[in-house]
Every structure is written in structure tokens, then in C-alpha cells.
Amino acid sequence: MKLLPTELPGVLRVEPHLHRDERGFFLEVFHAGKFEAQGLPLAFVQDNHSRSRRGTLRGLHLQLTAPQGKLVRCIAGEIFDVAVDVRRGSPTFGRWVGAALSAENFHQLWVPPGFAHGFCVTSEHAEVEYKCTTLYDPASDQAIAWNDPQIGIAWPLEEPVLSAKDAAAPRLAEVADRLPRFAR
């Protein structure tokens, strides 16, 4: 398993070692020792699974009082997965990084606490699973506009299918005073 840095400190692309043979394939999707060696959390308390059709965009989501770290993977189809640094005072505040995750490449994205997360489906459908470091708390939930020009994400679609919550999400500047502070 390779844990590769991205342009945003703390966000990692995870490339599991894949074993293929005539029966199919095998891979480790999580290895506590390798995560621990990188200073990453070992305890996940919630696993989520979603299925979405082409053009669906979910996000940008975060929790304000109980920030979640997420280990995201796509088990069917393909997505464009995004992490946005929303930690007030961070030198990379408002910057984003994206990665193509698919059932074919087996890559994962580690999205640390304090980052907003979102993805869009680029295949006919996609199934996404992600592990979370804290439990979902509806009272702590916050969405940020997927198309906020301050962030400027280069999504690979123009007119996404959105939930009502995501369609009405405020811009980053409108919620900045409520966001978690960057811890040095």
C-alpha cells in the first residue's frame, strides 16, 4: 500500500497493492500499521455506502463541531473525489485537490478532519464507500456550495444533479466564521 501526498498537506492518495490472478483480485483497503506510520488515525467508527447515477454531485460536506476524517473509495464505477481545506487560518484555506477514484484503479483518498468533501459521478453509476473517524452528527452538518468561485473546483461536469441541501448550500465566505480553526 502506498500513501502518497497531494498538493494539500494531510490529504493523501492511497494506492493499495493489488494481487490479480485467474480467480480475480485481492487487496488491503486499510492497514493500521501503515496508517499509524504516517500519523493517521487507526480508529474508524462509521462506514457509509452510497450509490449514485451519472452527473450526481454530493457535497461539499463537513461537520463543524465533530470534524470527520474520511477514507473514501469507489467500489463500482468512477467518481471525481474532492477535498477542500476549510480550516480557518490554514495556509491552504480554500484550496482543493481532486482525484479520480474507480473500481478499476482501486485508489482511495484520505480526507482529514477540517476538510470539506464532495464527489461527482463520471460513470453511468457509482458506488462509494467511506470510513469515518467520528459519528455523523446532523446538528454539526454544514454544506458549502459546490460551485463557489472562491474555491474554483474544476468539476468534470457543468450541470450536476444535486440534493436540495446541496443546491442551497452557502458559499465558503458565508460560513467562514463558523469553521474549525487550523491547529498547528
Give an overview in words.
This protein has three helices and 13 strands; from the N terminus they run E-E-E-E-H-E-E-E-E-E-E-E-E-E-H-H. It has 184 residues and is mainly beta. It is globular.
The count of DSSP E runs of length 2 or more, i.e. the number of strands, is 13
Overall number of domains: 1
Strand order of the largest sheet: 1-2-10-7-12-5
- Uncertain residue ranges: none
Compute the gyration radius: what is it? 16 Å
* Helical/strand content category: mainly beta
Sheet of most strands = 6 strands, antiparallel
The third-level CATH topology is Jelly Rolls
Terminal CA distance reads 28 Å
Mean pLDDT: 94
Helix-strand string: EEEEHEEEEEEEEEHH
Sum up the structure in keywords.
mainly beta, 184 residues, 8% helix
Would you spell out the secondary-structure blueprint of this structure?
Elements: E1 2-5, E2 12-15, E3 18-21, E4 24-27, H1 32-37, E5 46-53, E6 57-63, E7 70-76, E8 78-85, E9 96-102, E10 108-111, E11 115-121, E12 125-132, E13 141-143, H2 164-167, H3 172-175
Antiparallel strand pairs: 1-2, 2-10, 3-4, 5-12, 6-11, 6-13, 7-10, 7-12, 8-9, 8-11
